[in-house]
Design a protein that fits this description.
The protein has one domain. The protein is built from 9 helices and 2 strands, in the order H-E-E-H-H-H-H-H-H-H-H. The protein has helices at residues 2-11, 27-45, 49-64, 66-71, 76-80, 84-97, 104-113, 119-125, 161-167; strands at residues 18-20, 23-25. Strands 1-2 form a two-stranded antiparallel sheet. Helix 2 packs parallel to helix 6. The radius of gyration is 16 Å and the shape is globular.
Length: 170
């Protein structure tokens, strides 16, 4: 019952600032994030993985904070402070909708199993790099194991997903 009241107050814009990790947000922003979660779950249930990937990225940027949202790429400080609970929630949605074939935890496992523990090795395994070393998007119709979610980018141009996955014990 307490959850329903809390959710109602968020939707109605009556609850003060909420916090995701170290990022405070208003009830309106929190309600918008909840709508994104609903869109993500719907896209995943419809197996519309292209849309789910885009919604995931936008949702994560919004959760991360203003600098990330504005730049459309993660600010490293905001990424490092990204809520593990939110990361796990997104991972669980992907994992549940795909019978454990997609999600951050699958990517993390592939990374842990790779001999050199290098992102490039995982990129090749999930099909994000072709035989010539060129980046390519995943096959959204028939995705390889662990190839989704795909869209994550950082303002410094480097890969930081696996560091955060380890910090959140995914």
């Amino acid at each position: 019952m307490r959850f329903k009241r809390h959710f109602f107050l968020i939707v109605m814009g009556m609850l003060g600032p909420l916090c995701f990790g170290t990022h405070s947000m208003t009830a309106t922003e929190a309600g918008s994030i909840q709508q994104d979660y609903t869109r993500l779950e719907s896209a995943l249930n419809q197996r519309d993985f292209r849309t789910a990937d885009t919604v995931t990225y936008k949702l994560m940027l919004r959760i991360a904070g203003e600098k990330s949202s504005r730049a459309r790429a993660f600010n490293l400080t905001e990424w490092n402070n990204f809520s593990c609970a939110q990361l796990l929630k997104i991972d669980q949605l992907w994992s549940s909708a795909t019978s454990g074939e997609q999600g951050f935890s699958v990517q993390s496992n592939l990374y842990q199993q790779s001999s050199a523990r290098k992102a490039e090795q995982v990129y090749r395994t999930v099909g994000w790099i072709d035989g010539r070393g060129n980046f390519k998007p995943p096959n959204y119709q028939a995705p390889l194991l662990g190839s989704l979610p795909y869209k994550l980018a950082w303002q410094d141009g480097n890969e930081h997903r696996f560091e955060k996955f380890a910090a959140c014990t995914l």
